[in-house]
Amino acid sequence: MLVPAPNGNLISFGQAKRAGRMTELWVFGYGSLMWRPGFPIAAQAPGLLKGAHRALCVYSVFYRGTKEKPGLVLGLDRGGACRGVAFRVAPGAEDETIAYLREREQVTAVYVETYRNVRLVDGSGRTVKALTYLADPTHPQYAGRLSLDEQLRIVRACRGQAGANIEYVLNTVRHLEEEGVHDAVLSKLAARLTGEV
């Protein structure tokens, strides 16, 4: 699988490693990757990515909706910051992990695959360059910034191959809280969905 070289060309992770450009592969998870990464992990730590925030900004036409009735799923949208988990991929599993993530995340190519600086929030003060999937604002499935009422309307009504959109949101909020991450916007939406507000 290909990764960007400093000159902009794409090379395999193995080539980048042999050339001394990358010694280890890190992946930043901000949604389901946080609790269900699905690839071999050598280490993990809480991480903070600046310049993008977690948001229901992607129309789902496959997993949580259909082309006729799109649901909403998470993406990293421009601005702000996002608390998530940084995973160091097990040595030797880098190319396999990139292939797996492309198959999982890029079903409709709505995300931009890139490498971003992530500060590890584990007391080490270390910053790593991590593989990250950002929402593509030029993609037709990019929903942008929707009002809470609009999110509520869509999430309540939609279902896709992986189940109901409402289940996705409620499970996401529960898992984020289990990971020690409080997302005020998602928590407010979850409260409205369960009738607590």
Could you give the distance between the termini?
47 Å
Strand arrangement within the widest β-sheet reads 3-5-4-6-7
Tell me the number of strands: 9
For the largest beta-sheet, the strand count, sense and barrel status come to: 5 strands, mixed, barrel
| Element-level helix/strand string | EEHEEEHEEHEEHH
Structural class: alpha+beta
Outline: globular
Number of helices: 5
* Overall mean confidence score, pLDDT: 91
Written description of the protein model:
This protein is of the alpha+beta class and 197 residues long. It has helices spanning 13-18, 94-105, 148-157, 165-178, 184-193, and strands spanning 2-4, 10-12, 26-29, 41-60, 71-89, 111-120, 127-135, 159-160, 163-164. Helices cover 26% and strands 37% of the residues. The strands form 3 sheets. A 5-stranded mixed β-barrel has the order 3-5-4-6-7. A two-stranded antiparallel ribbon has the order 1-2. The longest helix is centred in the C-terminal third of the chain and has 14 residues, at 165-178. The model has no long low-confidence stretch (mean pLDDT 91).
How is the secondary structure organized here?
Elements: E1 2-4, E2 10-12, H1 13-18, E3 26-29, E4 41-60, E5 71-89, H2 94-105, E6 111-120, E7 127-135, H3 148-157, E8 159-160, E9 163-164, H4 165-178, H5 184-193
Parallel strand pairs: 3-7
Antiparallel strand pairs: 1-2, 3-5, 4-5, 4-6, 6-7, 8-9
Helix pairs in contact: 3-5, 4-5
Describe this protein with a few key phrases.
197 residues, alpha+beta, five-stranded mixed β-barrel, two-stranded antiparallel sheet
